[in-house]
Write a structure and sequence with these properties.
Rossmann fold; alpha/beta; 7-stranded mixed beta sheet; two-stranded antiparallel ribbon; 9 strands; 8 helices; elongated
Length: about 290
């Protein structure tokens, strides 16, 4: 097997490349218009170019300043969340990196709080990683429950399973390798986790939706409830990551219209989050 070269951190953050493209596009546009103006009107174009350049510089500086301010706040919130995480759980081994493509600390604090408060018997994670380890610790602290994590990348499933062993949590959690396969929802085809691997999953008390990746396709996570809703116990909670993204916001809106769900709360944390609850038969009969 060839040795893989480590990937720079910014290559995992699509926002970096998007902003870089925007800046380069604007500067190339400025250069092209300035050259055309010089060819057409000569000296007058210099004044035009300088004014436009000043505007571009000012706008770029303001954008960078705004981004730095936002990131400073986010960093502070994540540090707060990390302190909460480590003060709540007894972590016995170094954790994998958080944020970017992995779960952020402020999202993990939400899942820990749900587990410690409601003590679910079965937790199912759609997507595995550092959250699998942290949530397993939370189950151990709660004194009951087990966790099943679905992972579509075989190599990453093996890494998460190995981390569970290192943290001595493999008795509480398992990782199921379920490659992405076509699934149809409301007449639309999606790539989602192999349903044959999910047949033996028991009734779910907490469902955490954090996969598959956005690059899989539009509304990539929409099939989750169509496939797993009948496996949710009445009163089960659903925790959704990346709620700030348009696709996840649209997905939750469609779920609320299509299924008997209560929106418990939404959060404006780093990536956005939403907590939903499957209403019980008693709740529905009372309406």
């Amino acid at each position: 097997m060839p040795l893989q070269k480590p990937v720079r951190i910014e290559e995992h953050d699509p926002r970096f490349f998007k902003y870089r493209r925007e800046v380069l596009t604007r500067w190339f546009l400025w250069a092209g218009v300035s050259i055309m103006a010089w060819v057409l009107v000569r000296e007058v174009s210099l004044l035009f170019a300088l004014i436009t350049l000043g505007g571009l510089l000012l706008d770029t500086l303001l954008r960078v300043y705004h981004q730095l301010q936002v990131e400073n706040i986010q960093h502070y919130w994540q540090i707060e969340a990390v302190f909460s995480l480590y003060s709540t759980l007894k972590i016995d081994h170094p954790l994998p990196p958080m944020r970017l493509w992995a779960a952020s600390p402020d999202f993990l604090v939400l899942s820990i709080a749900l587990i410690k408060r409601h003590k679910p018997g079965i937790v199912v994670e759609i997507g595995s990683g550092v959250s699998t380890i942290v949530n397993s610790y939370a189950l151990r602290e709660a004194g009951r429950g087990s966790l099943i994590a679905l992972e579509h990348e075989e190599n990453f499933a093996a890494i998460t399973a190995d981390n569970l062993i290192a943290h001595q949590l493999s008795s509480l959690a398992q990782v199921i390798y379920a490659p992405l396969k076509p699934v149809w929802v409301d007449g639309r085809e999606f790539l989602w986790y192999d349903r044959e691997q999910l047949a033996d999953i028991p009734a779910i008390d907490l469902l955490i939706v954090d996969g598959p990746p956005e690059k899989t396709g539009p509304l990539a996570r929409l099939p989750a409830l169509s496939v797993l809703f009948d496996k949710l116990n009445d009163g089960a909670y659903i925790l959704v990551d990346d709620f700030m993204r348009t696709d996840e916001h649209t997905m939750v809106s469609q779920w609320v219209q299509a299924f008997p769900l209560q929106v418990v709360r939404t959060y404006a944390n780093e990536k956005g989050a939403a907590i939903l609850r499957k209403t019980s038969v008693k709740d529905r009969s009372a309406e």
